[in-house]
Amino acid sequence: MKKRSTKTIPSIVGLLLLTTIVLGGVYLTQNLKTSRQTSAQAKPLSVRIANITGQGATIYWFTQTPAAGSIKVNNRIFLDNRDKNSGQTGRYLTHYVDIDQLEAEKNYHFTILSEGQQHQETNFNFTTARSLPPANRTADLAFGVVLNQQSQPLPEALITLSLAAASNLASLTDKNGFWSVPLSTAYQKDLSGLVNYDQNQQIIEILVESESGETATMITNTGNDHPVPPIIIGKTYDFSKNPPSPKQEPQDFDWSSPETIDKITNGDHSGSFSPEETKTSQEKPIIGINNPQEGETIFLTKPEFSGQGPANQKIKITLESPKKFEEELLVSSFGSWQWIPPENITPGQHTITVEYYDENNLLHAVTRSFLVQAASASPSPTPITPLPTMPQNTPTPTSVPTSTPSPQATTTLTPSPTETVTSSTPQIIPTGQEATGPAQIVSGSLTPLIILAILGLGLIYLAVTIYQKKLP
User: Which CATH code for domain 134-272?
Assistant: First the structure.
């Protein structure tokens, strides 16, 4: 009789295990590399603070790759301005977050959340300004349009405006390339009060930074800032020595039209446009409100209202809320007006009315109703559908011994005792026993397997160490 041959398998299993470990190490190393690269590219760059008031401020920054960004202050989350209406977080290269509902003359530390990672630096803090009573000032808004190299509107570009003795001011271009910065509510650098400036001769500097990293600069004056001439990214404009005079256009002149942009872009600042290029006053109402629309829901407690009116004429704005606001302001020479309430308005239903008395002392008025809703700090949790439960009358499999209690779901997957003996318990043949039949697989020593496992782990540790040393 021949002896039944036996074979040991730890070496085979060990090789398979070693291969798996090495491949797993390579995979983990690549994932670590990708994760670190993504984290580095989503790191906030050039973080700045602007538009500080007694109730809030603006934080804006860049990232090298499109990233979801928000600000955390005192465990409250403030979304990017472009995300506040939808409540859904978008990914951007330029980030712009307004923070509101803060206390006056108080220091706040903030954390930037970028792609789920928290970023906190020692200089991530600001102090709110002194709370002031409503100022009896004429609204003064600097605004304009930014274009790309093809003279098309450039959205999502950061605007930084510098006015002597004023704290930092900023804005973000919308989808049409337009931006605006209120000057009449700007604070002094020490935040002790509103800045005093000449509304016709004060020099202002404007810096534009696009998503692609291109910049443009313009130096002009407050007499030519509503609007400033269109800014083409990549160019530099200096009107400090010879600023263009404020343009007196027809009342209904649409300065934002493509034809106008083309004229001004090509150097025509004369303001001489033929009647064919303008609309007649009968084609649109004397006064109007463009923002907000009737019944619109907005998520900002200090929104910007805008519309049209008779050029260079005074209009009266009344905002009806728990606290009533009234202000008179001058419509620009282009027939447009913008106004921001001096302080936050409470959530709820509001109305805004614009009034104008014409040369015949006839009253023209328009009213809009809108709803202010506080932006939620975080998305609503997604409801979890409960798992179906096993019916109570489900029979217990007979293959499980009654002396070994186990959960019902587990017992349905437990093999019978016969299957366990046949498939998982090898038959051991004592040394020297003679038998016939096929070769029987016998488990061998675990020592080679342990050694191979240690070698595999060592290789992974070595790979990760070498990779970390190569990182900058």
Answer: 2.60.40.10
